[in-house]
Each structure stands twice: as structure tokens, then as C-alpha cells.
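Protein: Lysophospholipase L1-like esterase
Species: Acetivibrio clariflavus
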Amino acid sequence: MYLVYFSCGNGFGISFFTGFIPGQKVNAAEYPGTTIVPTPAATRLVITIYLGDVDENKVVNSLDLAKYKQYLLGEIKSLPEAGDVNQDGEMNSIDYALIKAYLLGLVKDLGTKTIWGPPVPTPYVPTPTPIQTPKPTIKIMPLGDSITDGITVPGAYRTRLWKNITSNGYNVDFVGSMTGGPSDLGDKNHEGHSGWRIDQISNNINYWMDTYKPQIVLLHIGTNDISQKYDLNNAPNRLSDLIDKICAKLPADGKLYVATIIPISYADVRTYNSQVAAVVQNKASQGKPVYLVDMYSALTLSDLADGVHPNANGYNKMGDVWFNAIKGDLAR
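Structure follows.
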């Protein structure tokens, strides 16, 4: 599609679109006095040429006539496009005569020609640097007894878990009323209470949940119930009650992970762990956000420092198991 501009010679013109294609010659008889220019593009300049203005100062006067004469005498090799006054594709004495007639007042207006100039340079717009949405900080409460606290190894499994989380680019906030751990543990808060049983944790859990508002709770509890042989028949009921309290306080997207307890040297914990699995399954079937973590299978007695508490290798294994259980929740 091309734009055709027709100059009427009396100060105004008519523009219309036609279906010329690039390189097509215009039939002068069919379109007399027409000029074809490409359809304007938003990034090109519009240039108006004053026909006869061969010195390109936007005024046609005697200087243009003199310059045209030099061209006809061969003293100037070329003229700008404005020299083709009658728009026949040639610059000759006829165009010279039209300019002279205009200067004598015999022609009122030589007209103009509209062309499209060079492309307007596109201003440089730097590509904006994408702003990465920071990963959320997840509040995690390590909950349990001395195995969570870390009697034999400061920081317990929390050090390895912290490193696993942060080295994978996630943000975490360990929460709890207790604190402890080595210098390379970036967040030392927890709720690991040495010597405590299930009921003792249960008696305090509402306060801790209200105060610290964890999104994820990691529960490893029951070892002291077995060590103290404290009403073992009702241990599953106590655990069930504790789970209910935690789930009631979790936020909408919160989760509770309950671990089977690790082996100890002086008692068989497999019966209790079977009960833990049954309680967790029952709660999950009720739609509660509680999940079982098999910690018992991850450690052996050789991973214990004193027959109860893990050594450094054992705690590293625990940290890895916890991380694999919760890593899908860290990117939410």
C-alpha cells in the first residue's frame, strides 16, 4: 500500500492510498501531477520538498534559478530532488522555465513533494533487570527432648538441617524458647527439652505455638516415656492429644512432621514406633496436616554416642532425613 500525494499548485493538495507495489511505474497520463511515496511508518520522518528550491533553503528565488542555470551549463553535476519541478523524472530546461515563470509571477505556486526521510533512531532503552521475588522465610520449630536439644553434639540435627536448607537457597527461621548450638548454626532457637516426656511437651505446646507461630513443626518425642517406663500403654493417647493441639494452632498452610524415634541401646522402641505410625495415619485420615517421618530406619546403634543420643554422624543422618521430608514446603 502506498500514499499518493497530489499537489494542486494553489497551496493545497490531496492525499489518498492506492495499491501500488514497490518498483511499479506510474502511468503519468492516468495520474498526472502525482508523487508516490511509501506508506508512512511510525519510526520515519516526514520531509516536505519545495519544488524548485534547489539550494534547499525552503524559499524559491533568483538564487535557485542561477543554480539551475549552472546545472544546465554543466557547471554543477547534480541537483537535489526539488529540481524536478514538473515531476516527470527528469531535470531539464522545462523545469528551469517553470522556476523562471514562478519568479516572474506567471505561476503562482510550484508545489511541494512529500517524502519519507531516514528512520528515526530508536532511543536506547536498557533491558530492565528482572526483580527476583525473594523466597519466603519459613518458620520451623524443632520440638522434642534432649535428642533435639543436643546433649552429646551441640546443635543436634539442627546444624545439619540448617545447612541443608540454606545451601539450597531457602530462607528459614528456627523458632522456640530454647537456644543452643555451635557457631556454624545460623539460628539456634528450638524447643528441645532434656528429659521431657510427651505429656510435659503437651502441657506447654499451646503457649509455644501462640508465641512463635511456626509453619512447620518437627516432632521427635517418646524416648523419655520409654526410658522412664511412664504409663506406656497410654503413650499413644498422649501423642494423639499433642498432635491435636499442634494441628489446632498451625496456620492454614502449616504442617506437622512426626518422626518415629531413633533406636536406643537399652530398649526396643519398635512397638512404640508402630503406635506412632498408627496415630499419625489416623490423624491424616481425618484431614489433619500431619505426616510420618521414618527416623528409626535412618540410624543404627553405631550412630549413638551414649546409647541414647546420636553422635555427629547420627545427627547428620537425622538432619538429612528431616530436610528430605520438608524440602517441598520450603519453596512455597
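Remarks: The domain at 2-119 is CATH 1.10.1330.10 (Type 1 dockerin domain).
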